[in-house]
Amino acid sequence: MKVKVITQILEANDRIAAENRKKFKDANIYVINLMSAPGAGKTSLLERTIKELNGKIKIGVIEGDIAGIDDALKIESLGAPVVQINTGGACHLDANMISDVIDDLPLKELNLIIIENVGNLVCPAEFKVGEDMKVMLLSVAEGDDKPLKYPLMFQESSALILNKIDLLPYTNADLGKIKRDSLTLNPGLKVFDISCKTGEGINEWANWLQELLK
Questions:
Q1: Which of 11, 26, 28, 94 has its CA 20 to 30 A from that of 103?
Q2: Torsion of the alpha carbons at 85, 147, 180 and 114, rounded to the nearest 10
Q3: What is the CA radius of gyration of the chain?
Q4: What is the set of domains in the chain, with CATH numbers?
């Protein structure tokens, strides 16, 4: 019975996600579902990305958190349209949550929407929300064992951002192992080495986004 219920939930979610996707496509907007553990640097990446692409791509953001509006305020201060979703305890965003806020964004003005999912290495990968692609962000401070511990996140993503590489000298993380394990799980994964603190790698990431939207 439990398996049947879960299947029904995912099927209903996928139907709404398809409706979201059509709405985004009709507005000619590319959508990225950004996933990571808490504290890995999703909001810092968004801030860097918005600044780097200012005047080149008009970005809107959907912020997902269990509670609070701090991240949305940071994005708003940069002049980017943003809406906040507080799940009240749910560990991920689903398609219905996204459907409820789509019209709160100025769709006609946007080229790209980035959905910052709730910090979690499990649930977000299971739920489509209407995105064109999922992007996984992993902080090297989390260690090099995460791809094999949480394989679905890496298998479902089209790109992997390895953040906080400025901290590598202060950790035991093996960057090569992370990449090998990730690419074994998903050979088509595009991998970026980034430091949101120093700005290293941000240009390559931003250029890649621009190419996606051409």
A1: 11
A2: 0
A3: 17
A4: 2-212 (3.40.50.300)
